[in-house]
Amino acid sequence: MLKEQQVREIIEAKLFSGNMPTEFINFCLAHGRIRHYAPKQYLYFSGDEGNTVFFLVTGRIRLYLMSEFSEKIIRILSPPAFFPEVVLDGKPYPHAALCIEETDVLAIDRKTLTRFIESNPSVLWVFYRELALDLRRSYRQIRNLSLGDARLRLGAKLYALAHVHGKSSSNGTLIAVSLSATELAGMCSLARESVSRILGELKDEAIIKIEKKNITVLDLESLRDWIHERASRTRSSLD
């Protein structure tokens, strides 16, 4: 398990773009608890009482929307990240959180954190900017899902994943999250068969390379051009 100093260094340097005051970091470390989770272990489920907020320090987490018969990945978190922002309103968790790999988080009681924020209103602006960024991301996802065709949806998702979870490799940018065609289909609201077909097209055009569940974007500029071309077609069809 990580030591407090390691957690401090990660949070101070990168969380909220490094803009949180030292007083906030000190408070969280003093009142929070470092927790370790194993792969495939849930932090919480949709509908659970939202008593705790988390700072992701190491590992990766999938956020799911779940129903009786299906589930949909809405986001994959990489460290450092604060989540779930919405439970600051005191309502239940809106989604489930599952650890993809060995994961460490700093967990803090929601009411304790809320009292600190109320006593230190300058912190609110930092939270607002982070929430605004997440809201813009959500709007972009809604736009792609509602206006884009299947190729645009999947291309945009791959491009976003490459930027958030990408690691440089000898071939290009490796998306450092293993995703099956079924999981990608759920993220894009597409049929698995459609995703498999489109991935095949991207492979044939030498834009991506697939090895098992690992996807490498060979050229981000080519993928972006491929997306823009389909976006232009979509706009033309709506005119």
Mean pLDDT: 85
Give the strand order of the largest sheet, numbering strands 1, 2, ... along the chain: 1-8-3-6
N-C termini distance: 56 Å
Contiguous low-pLDDT stretches (5 residues minimum) are none
Q: Can you name the CATH architecture of the largest domain?
A: Sandwich
SSE order: HHEEEEEEEEHHHEEHHEEH
Helix content: 40-55%
Under CATH at level 1, the class of the largest domain stands as Mainly Beta
| Major sheet size, sense and barrel closure | 4 strands, antiparallel
Task: Please state the overall shape, judged from the principal axes of the Cα atoms.
Answer: globular
Q: What amount of the residues lies in strands?
A: 15-25%
Total number of helices: 8
Structure classification: alpha+beta
The CATH topology assignment of the largest domain is Jelly Rolls
Total of domains? 2
CA-based gyration radius: 19 Å
Number of strands: 12
CATH superfamily of the largest domain: Jelly Rolls
Describe this structure in words.
This protein is α+β, with helices and mostly antiparallel strands and 239 residues long. It has 2 domains: 140 residues, Jelly Rolls, CATH 2.60.120.10; 90 residues, Orthogonal Bundle (Arc Repressor Mutant, subunit A). Helix content is 47%, strand content 23%. It is built from 8 helices and 12 strands. The strands form 3 sheets. The protein has a 4-stranded antiparallel sheet. A hairpin with a 4-residue loop joins β4 and β5. α5 runs antiparallel to α8. The longest helix is centred in the middle third of the chain and has 26 residues. The termini are far apart. The mean pLDDT is 85.
